[in-house]
Specification:
It is built from six helices and five strands; from the N terminus they run αβαβαβαββαα. By secondary structure, the protein is an alpha/beta fold. It starts with a helix and ends with a helix.
């Protein structure tokens, strides 16, 4: 049985750990709110950009672009797959990282010809340790995503796509669902985009746009190409922010659970400490009483 000193030291240790987990909870909460605020501030720009791309397709008729394709068969074998994987830099976030890894592994099983582009130290260490085909020149930390970070990532990925490193690019990330829920790991095809998602069909506003004459300088194809690159930045930025928010939410849940466990453990340890102290006091009283009786009997 542990002594009162050992239990007292353990109570102090658990209490110190609880202070750390509580601080981590508050830090994650602050980081998540800041990331969501920045994402909401940039969302109108990218929504408008998507609307303008739809307008260009309505205006341009048979407009073509290398980042669009309606004929890419998801189930058809062959072709090279690029996979952008977004994980955290560290653990202590429940099953957040493991869920992204499992979704990525399922996507990797579709084709033996793939290349991984990883954001986050956790994913980098995991996939390198298992000998996966990781792009060694592509390494980004998942530390408070920004538009500048999204631009750098997008530029590197587009350079790889233009060089023929892959024919499809997927992004594996975690969709933030709001509140304390960390959301679910998922993947989307990033490029080529499905052209049907941008071609207006039966939309009155789109019909009105199509009937309006617009002038594009130097031409609509060039403007579309530049707009698509900006839109891809927004897409990547959205995936980064969603993943980052989900990571912080998962860490908040993990730290909240750790705080609850620490409180239960402290209550149990305190009860055990009180019992030991009570037993020790009782033992001392018994010994004093026995000594007093012994003295009285000798005097009598």
């Amino acid at each position: 049985m542990a002594s009162t000193k050992e239990i007292k030291n353990r109570i102090k240790s658990v209490g110190d750990t609880q202070k750390i987990t509580n601080a981590m909870y508050l830090i994650s909460s602050t980081k998540m709110r800041r990331a969501r605020k920045e994402a909401e501030e940039t969302k109108p720009y990218f929504d408008l950009l998507r609307h303008e791309i739809r307008r260009m397709f309505a205006f341009g008729g048979g407009l073509r672009n290398k980042y669009f394709d309606s004929n890419v068969d998801e189930e058809k074998p062959g072709g090279k797959n690029g996979i952008l994987v977004i994980t955290a830099d560290k653990g202590l976030a429940g099953a957040y990282n493991q869920n992204v890894v499992k979704d990525t592994l399922a996507l990797m099983d579709r084709s033996n010809d793939y290349k991984l582009y990883i954001v986050g130290d956790y994913g980098w260490r995991y996939f390198r340790s298992r000998g996966s085909k990781v792009c060694e020149a592509f390494e980004h930390s998942m530390n408070e995503p920004s538009l500048a970070m999204a631009r750098d990532i997008t530029k590197e990925l587009l350079d790889e796509f233009d060089a023929g490193a892959f024919t499809r690019l997927y992004v594996c990330y975690t969709e933030y669902s709001g509140g304390m829920s960390p959301g679910a790991a998922m993947h989307d095809r990033l490029i080529p985009f499905d052209k049907d998602d941008f071609v207006p069909r039966g939309d009155e506003q789109a019909a009105a746009d199509a009937s309006t004459v617009f002038e594009y300088e130097p031409d609509v194809e060039t403007v579309l190409a530049r707009s698509i690159q900006s839109y891809l930045v927004g897409y990547v930025y959205s995936a980064l922010v969603n993943s980052y928010s989900s990571e912080q939410s998962a860490r908040m849940m993990a730290m909240d659970a750790a705080n609850d466990n620490a409180s239960e453990l402290l209550a149990s340890l305190q009860l055990e400490y009180n019992h030991l102290r009570q037993n020790a006091i009782t033992q001392e009283i018994t010994e004093i009483s026995s000594g007093a009786r012994s003295l009285r009997s000798k005097r009598g």
